[in-house]
Design goal:
Largest sheet: 7 strands, mixed
Strand order of the largest sheet: 1-4-5-6-7-8-9
Shape: globular
Radius of gyration: 32 Å
Strand content: 5-15%
Distance between the termini: 42 Å
């Protein structure tokens, strides 16, 4: 394709651009893009947008076209503004048609005909909004002139690319929100991996790796994601806005969700099949999947003949998620003219079926009891049954299927199919029309590999607290096997019969012992990590007892007991009634528990919150209630949600402390196919084995500094010798982080005592190397919490920080450093760090110093790549130091203010200035006067426009293009933050 020459520079720096051009995206150079968007303050390609608006909406007048573009341009750069922009892109917003005297939908994108749209990709997209700091995106994708995807391209040699990309996006939110006002999708790539997510409120948990097979190259991943038809589907269907805990958030569906939705919609359109089973493991976004599938069916009125979707939920789901963020998603559906009804009673459900209602019906499974047979014999009714393994239990499934005999019924489950009578029944009901037994499957192992969920580790509590094996077998496993346990209510019925077992579990002396263990373990193992915990008690009375016991050991505000209410408690169980939370307090507790800086830290539960409650901060589950199969999997899955805290430290695993002993024999507790639950929960001892192997290897690989010299010299030789190049640093950082993650999980532990010294030296070396090559210094770099406490105790005494100094960047200091002992490489890094510190601390001097810093960075890069020596790098820095000293002296000599001097320094050697005979110093003095006239130009758009206009006057003798360039240059220097 000859057009590739247009983007040659971009394809060298950003291979993504080349790959996108190969599949039909048109490249725009930064210069052309800037011209089309009216300068660096604009985001929309106005000519492209106007042309497509006119083509798709011929009824719009020229004035209406301009007004719509101005409306889009004025949408606030907020998450709610971003949602508004998506609604415009999807054709969900209207404009008044003067000719027909009515409002009509405005089409910005032709989703049905991809070739009718203009797909552009540009790079080095710089945005400098008035009165706000500017920023630059690496790559920007646009459809019909509107930015839709922003990409950060990271160096594959550097570690933590995804974390750094997310941090950059959050920085845009704060510094230049206009840069992500329109784009809906956010990508991070470093040629080896390709990650995708959404703009606004982005966290590590919101990012997903684009899955590809090992033999598929980076080019394939880019072209698969940006294939134009599929990308339009992403914009049209796969982005969701919702409200969670009072905050507007957004999400993009992952590949397994998209695959399942397509399979569900296809099954519902297939006249030859009317059953299907979707197993997507706990925590993988099952609710979003089924709601989006319902939305697509109901939107396609012609294809599905204005069908009806019945969403069948259980009580727990309805009270939990449907009261929260799902309300917003349902509201979005209603905005699309999709009727939604809740069947709150059996009579209401019967009435809706009798009335031939078209749209979405939400009903609990027990509302189908005694619903009349053949209430609706239409074949365009589609029943989605959530938690199908328990919803079709007993006769309720029979009533449902009899009431809508020709319906297509799709079962959804978050747990595998059990090797029990009930489990096999679920399989027979939903899975018989698919050879594999599933319409779609997303296993636990896949979810962990994709980082959608975390692995779970378990450890058995001390033997004096656990239930004897014989007693557990006789009083729980045998009873549960006979009864069948698919939900918490059925489990509680089994436990009601296990009188002796319940008495054992909540005996006062045992409750006191378990509470003491929990309090100590929480303080030492969970609290230092900043995480939270559940105590799962056998019944409501046990919950109340644990609350009382823990209040004696921990601050009372740290714990709350959350359980169902019973009117008889006041008489029969006064302690339970006394500690019962009001509805309002329970709602607050559910919300506060999800916040790291709020109490409570521990929730004591038995029936509520064990399904449908998503709290990523939840790390440890103290299990003191016998469970098995689905209920056990659902309960332990509460701790498998990924979480990244504000310092970027990631939760690595979920932890279960088993006080009952149900996890002694996993095959007995989880009667599923072994391939389905393989790796779902593993013994913590496996992590200890892994730690011991890795720390032994790291000690040999990294802690041998060789012979000769004192301790500081050996450390310096190690830091600036072995780790000078980025690749060895990255390998060490990754090896260390693996070890540190294990330490954070396992400590404190008696098995670690002999390894404290080795681990501490590794942590100190890590912090030293990070600091040695960092722009800014922090003694403990990015050490995790328990590790940081260990290292901070005597960091300075052990040499940490001796090599990582920030020194003044000037000629005098440089010459003094030459005489000091130590490596030239270390001196070079310290000098450049000193220059960065000066820029950080003196914003006024930044315009003068930044070009010097950029050149110093290139010297560092050559040093890291061994293209130059430490000695030669010192000589090159010496030349820069002479320039810096000259600038400092010139600033004093001219007597200009810092901002005016920044303009003078940038203009003094400008060719256009010299050619025209303009005096840079005289112009700087004029700039100084203008800055005094417009003191608020940095934050006031009107003053900035007046300042810009006034700058043209002293430059009137220059050609137009040169004059505009110089005005831009001056503005950048005098208004930079």
């Amino acid at each position: 394709m000859s057009d590739l020459k247009i983007s040659e520079a971009g394809t060298v720096q950003f291979p993504m651009v080349k790959h996108a051009v190969e599949i039909g995206w048109t490249p725009l150079t930064p210069e052309v893009a800037k011209q089309k968007r009216g300068g660096e303050a604009g985001m929309l390609l106005r000519d492209e947008l106007e042309a497509k608006l006119s083509e798709f909406n011929p009824w719009l007048s020229a004035e209406a076209l301009r007004s719509i573009i101005e409306t889009l341009d004025a949408i606030p750069a907020t998450v709610d503004g971003n949602r508004e922009m998506l609604m415009w892109l999807r054709g969900e917003r209207g404009w008044y048609d003067e000719a027909e005297k009515r409002h009509r939908r405005v089409q910005l994108i032709d989703f049905g005909n991809p070739d009718a749209n203009e797909f552009h990709v540009s790079w080095e997209w710089t945005l400098k909004p008035p009165a706000r700091k500017g920023n630059r995106a690496d790559v920007m994708f646009l459809i019909n002139g509107v930015p839709v995807c922003i990409v950060e391209h990271k160096n594959p040699k550097d570690g933590d690319a995804i974390e750094r990309g997310i941090k950059q996006l959050r920085r845009y939110e704060i510094e230049t929100p206009e840069l992500i006002g329109a784009p809906q999708i956010f990508n991070v790539t470093h040629l080896l991996d390709y990650w995708y997510g959404v703009t606004w409120n982005a966290t590590r948990r919101d990012m997903a790796r684009w899955k590809q097979t090992p033999d598929e190259a980076y080019r394939f991943a880019v072209q698969a994601f940006f294939e134009r038809t599929d990308f339009l589907r992403t914009v049209q269907h796969w982005i969701l806005f919702y409200v969670q805990d009072g905050e507007t958030r957004k999400s993009i569906l992952r590949q397994h969700q998209r695959r399942a939705i397509d399979a569900i919609v296809a099954r519902c359109a297939d006249p030859t099949k009317n059953r299907g089973l979707v197993w997507h493991t706990q925590g993988s976004g099952k609710t979003f999947t089924l709601l989006t599938a319902a939305k697509l069916i109901l939107e396609q009125k012609e294809r599905f003949q204005s069908g009806t979707v019945i969403l069948v939920v259980d009580r727990t789901e309805l009270e939990g998620q449907l009261k929260g963020w799902v309300e917003r998603v349902l509201g979005e559906m209603q905005n699309q003219d999709i009727a939604i009804k809740r069947a709150n009673t059996k009579a209401e459900l019967q009435q809706l079926l009798d009335a031939d209602f078209r749209g979405l019906i939400i009903a609990m499974i027990h509302k189908f009891e005694a619903i009349r047979k053949d209430s609706s014999i239409r074949d365009n009714i589609y029943v989605f049954i959530d938690e199908a393994h328990r919803s079709v239990a007993k006769d309720l499934g029979t009533y449902l299927m009899a009431s809508v005999p020709n319906a297509t019924i799709i079962g959804f489950t978050g747990t595998p199919i059990a090797n029990t009578e009930q489990g096999t029944g679920t399989f027979k009901i939903f899975g018989t029309e698919d050879e594999a037994g599933f319409l779609d499957k997303y296993s636990i192992k896949e979810s962990i590999a994709d980082e959608t969920t975390l692995p779970i580790k378990h450890v058995l509590a001390p033997s004096e607290m656990t239930v004897p094996v014989d007693r557990l077998d006789k009083e729980f496993f045998e009873l549960a096997a006979a009864e069948g346990v698919t939900d918490i209510d059925e489990l509680n019925k089994v436990l009601d019969r296990a009188v002796g077992l319940r008495a054992f579990l909540k005996a006062d002396d045992r409750v006191a012992k378990v509470a003491a263990f929990v309090a100590e373990h929480f303080r030492e193992n969970v609290l230092p990590l900043g995480y939270k915990a559940f105590v799962v008690a056998v019944d409501r009375e046990a919950c109340a007892k644990y609350k009382q016991a823990l209040d004696k050991l921990l601050p009372p505000e740290w714990t709350e007991a959350v359980y169902t209410e019973n009117a008889a408690d006041v008489v029969d169980r006064p302690l339970v009634a006394q500690l019962q939370l009001s509805d309002e307090r329970e709602e607050d507790v559910r919300l506060l528990f999800k916040k790291a800086d709020k109490e409570p830290k521990i929730l004591i539960v038995t029936d509520k919150l064990l399904t449908g409650y998503d709290a990523p901060l939840l790390y440890c589950l103290y299990l003191d209630k016998p469970m098995r199969d689905h209920v056990l999997l659902q309960a332990v899955a509460r701790v498998n949600r990924p979480y990244v805290d504000k310092e970027g430290i990631r939760k690595q695993v979920g932890l279960v402390i088993d006080f009952v002993g149900v996890l002694r024999e996993l095959k007995k507790a989880l009667q599923f196919d072994s391939s389905d639950v393989d790796g779902v929960i593993e013994d913590l001892d496996l992590l200890m084995k892994d730690f011991l192997e890795k720390i032994a290897k790291a000690s040999v690989d990294y802690l041998d500094a060789g012979e000769g010299g004192d301790a500081d010299e050996r450390l310096e030789r190690l830091v600036y010798g072995r780790f000078l190049q980025p690749e060895p640093r990255k390998a060490f950082f990754e090896a260390y982080k693996d070890i540190e993650n294990l330490w954070e999980i396992l400590s404190p532990s008696k098995e670690l005592v002999d390894h404290i010294g080795t681990f501490k030296r590794l942590a100190q070396l890590y912090a030293t190397v990070r600091n040695a090559y960092a722009d800014k210094i922090g003694f403990v770099a990015d050490l995790a919490y328990k590790t940081r406490q260990l290292v901070e105790q005597n960091a300075t005494q052990d040499g940490l920080g001796l090599l990582t100094k920030s020194v003044t960047f000037d000629v005098k200091t440089l010459e003094t450093l030459r005489l000091d002992k130590g490596s030239d490489e270390g001196k070079v890094f310290n000098l450049v760090r000193g220059l960065q510190k000066e820029i950080d601390e003196s914003a006024d001097a930044a315009p003068v110093l930044q070009p010097l810093k950029d050149r110093a960075e290139r010297i560092l890069k050559d040093l890291e790549n061994r293209n130059t020596t430490g000695l030669a790098a010192m000589d090159l820095l010496a030349a820069l130091a002479v320039e810096k000293d000259a600038a400092s002296q010139a600033a004093k000599d001219t007597g200009l203010t810092p901002k005016a001097f920044a303009a003078f320094w940038a203009l003094q050697d400008n060719p256009a200035m010299k050619k025209s005979g303009l005096d840079a110093l005289e112009l700087a003095k004029e700039i100084e006067k203008l800055l005094a006239r417009f003191p608020n130009a940095q934050v006031n758009p009107d003053e900035q426009r007046q300042l810009r206009a006034s700058l043209y006057r002293p430059l009137i003798s220059l050609p137009n293009e040169a004059r505009a360039h110089l005005v831009d240059l001056i503005i950048v220097n005098v208004l930079s933050q």
